[in-house]
Amino acid sequence: MTQSATNRRAFLRTSLAGGIALASGVGSTWAADVSGQPAAGTIGDFKISLAQWSLHKALFNTKEITNLDFPKVAREQYGIEAVEFVNSFFKDKAHDSAYLKDLKTRADDHGVTCVLIMIDGEGDLSANEKDHRMQAVENHKKWVDAAAALGCHSIRVNTGGNYSPTDVTKAAEACGALTEYGEKHKINIICENHGGPSSNPDALIALIKAVGKPGFGTLPDFGNFPKDKKGKYTIDVYDAIARMMPYAKGVSAKSYNFSSGQESSLDYARILKIVTDSGYHGYVGIEYEGDRLTEPQGIKATKDLLVSLRGSVYRPSV
């Protein structure tokens, strides 16, 4: 192990052991070196949540359900006891205390935990102009408040497109300021690999380190990595996930299509062993985005796969 790797793990043991990290399911010690090529062994325990984007067609297009219905739907239709909201489905309600109280009450009434809110459309946290960056910080603060009102542990932000592995100064300034606000409300600020530099693990991890705050972490998404025109990943997604997991405060189980009960393009067992080796035991959020199954079918297929792998023995393919 290199000296830098040793220092990184020492930092993580101390900085992520605090209350915010533990609330989101990050362990204070690490079970193994996190590698994209995990050794054989048992896949550990984790909780399952439902990401609201899995039902975006029902919410946006057919309007079969509303945002207020989401906790009930998760519980009664899918047997899932935790939800991850997307702000697009209640964009004008961040400051509506009565609405948020109603939503929280509905979740509580159905025994559903509100995990996080995914935030889109609130400005570029890496904008070149400082006033634009700081306006984006201000725009996000209301969602920190909303997340606190709902009992969430985090908001997921988009980090913007104006940074790189060697230049994260501007993005770090804004993300750091937002994280300081989040820490006051016990809300983590987390970054998903969600396109642009955020889907480059070199750039995203450079940003995490530059901010250097325990309330700022990652939301590794199994599938949001660059692809070529044929739909093949252009980077090693397993290595990328492994590199993101030591900073993870949430995990997004992206799924597209299935064959014989397995996700067609991703080795879920391998990924979940990577998750286990990182010491993570929090929520793994189902986020179905496929086109062959209906949304209900895709959610159920993803849940069945996650349940079947939890506690199973992973064996690397030859």
UniProtKB/TrEMBL annotation:
<feature type="signal peptide">
    <location>
        <begin position="1"/>
        <end position="31"/>
    </location>
</feature>
<feature type="domain" description="Xylose isomerase-like TIM barrel">
    <location>
        <begin position="77"/>
        <end position="305"/>
    </location>
</feature>
<dbReference type="InterPro" id="IPR006311">
    <property type="entry name" value="TAT_signal"/>
</dbReference>
<protein>
    <submittedName>
        <fullName>Sugar phosphate isomerase/epimerase</fullName>
    </submittedName>
</protein>
<dbReference type="Pfam" id="PF01261">
    <property type="entry name" value="AP_endonuc_2"/>
</dbReference>
<dbReference type="InterPro" id="IPR050312">
    <property type="entry name" value="IolE/XylAMocC-like"/>
</dbReference>
<dbReference type="InterPro" id="IPR036237">
    <property type="entry name" value="Xyl_isomerase-like_sf"/>
</dbReference>
<dbReference type="InterPro" id="IPR013022">
    <property type="entry name" value="Xyl_isomerase-like_TIM-brl"/>
</dbReference>
<dbReference type="GO" id="GO:0016853">
    <property type="term" value="F:isomerase activity"/>
</dbReference>
<keyword id="KW-0413">Isomerase</keyword>
<keyword id="KW-0732">Signal</keyword>
